Amino acid sequence: MPYMVLLSFDTEEFDVPREHGVEYDTLKEGMEVSKEGTCRILDVLKQNNVKATFFCTGNFAKHAPEVMKRIMDEGHEVACHGVDHWEPKASDFRESKRIVEEVTGIEVRGYRQPRMFPVSDEEIAAAGYRYNSSLNPAFIPGRYMHLTAPRTWFMKGEVMQIPASVTPWIRFPLFWLSLHNLPLWLYEWLVRRTLKHDGYFVTYFHPWEFYDLKEHPELKMPFIIRNHSGREHMQRLDHVIKMLKKRSEQFWTFTEFVKGKRT
Which residue, 3, 11, 2, is CA-closest to 205? Predict the structure, then answer.
C-alpha cells in the first residue's frame, strides 16, 4: 500500500540576511530571490508531475501575482503564511487570508504561521481555515522544544493540525535544513523509516534555498544554509522525489490529506 507524501513550501519574501545584521530590502531584493527560487521549485515539480502546497505570505502574493498564477495553473494548492514574514503578528491569519484570496480568487483552507510560531486554533477556525500546519514537534534546543507535542496529525475542534514530520525515536527534524546538510542517502533512509512508521510524510522548504546563495557572500548566510543551496538543492529535491515515486508513494496536497482523513 503506498504512503502519502505532503510536500510544502513556505513561499515568503527572503528576509534571512536581516537575521545576520545585513541591511536588506526584503520587498525588493528579497522578492526577486524568492520569485526565482519558486520558479525553480515549480520546474522540479513539473518535471516529476507531482503536486505540492505553497504557504504564501500576503507580501509574496501581492508582489508576485504572476508566480501565484503559475502555482495555481500547474495544479498546486495555495495556503496562507502570514502577511510580513519579518514582522509576524498573531492576528495576521485574517489579513493573510484576505490578501491571498483577493490575489488568487480562490478560497484558502490552510494556514502556517511564520517560523512555526503558535497561533490560536479557535481564531483559525473562526476565520474559516480547515487545517493548521504551524507545529514542528522537533527537539531543537533554542528553536523548537516540543518534546510532548503530538508527532502526527490530530484535531483541535474542527481544525486539523498537521505537524511537520520528525523521526519517531529522537524527534529529529526532516525539514529543509536536514536535506541541506545530511548525506542524501541518510536523509532518504530517515524519510522511508518515518513513512513506514507514520503512514505519511510532511516536509517543508523555502524558495530562497533554491537560489544560488553561495554566489552571494555579501548576504552572510551561515554554512548550514549555503550548503547544497541553489541548483544543488534542486537536484537533491529531484532525487528525493524520484526515490519516492519509484516506491509508488502518492503526493497529496494538504487539503487532499484533510479530506482523506476526515472521510
Answer: 11
Q: Would you state the pLDDT for residue 40? A: 98
Do the beta carbons of residue 254 and residue 55 sit within 8 Å?
no
Please give the Cα distance from 61 to 38 (Å, whole number): 12
Cell of 249: 508513494
Q: Give the 3-state secondary structure of residue 40.
A: helix
Determine the Cα–Cα distance for residues 10 and 149; give it in Å rounded to an integer.
22
> Which residue type does 133 have?
S
CA distance 83 to 92: 6
Answer yes or no: is pLDDT of 143 > 90. Answer: no
Residues in the chain: 263
CA–CA separation, 244 and 248 (whole Å): 6
Q: Read off the pTM.
A: 0.96
User: Distance between CA 190 and CA 244 in Å, rounded?
Assistant: 12
Tell me the pLDDT tens digit for each residue of 218-241.
999 999 999 999 999 999 999 999
User: CA-CA distance, 134 to 150, in Å (whole number)?
Assistant: 12
> pLDDT, tens digit, for every residue of 55-88?
999 999 999 999 999 999 999 999 999 999 988 8
To the nearest 5 percent, what fractions of the chain are helix, strand and coil? 45, 15, 40
CA 207 to chain centre: 9
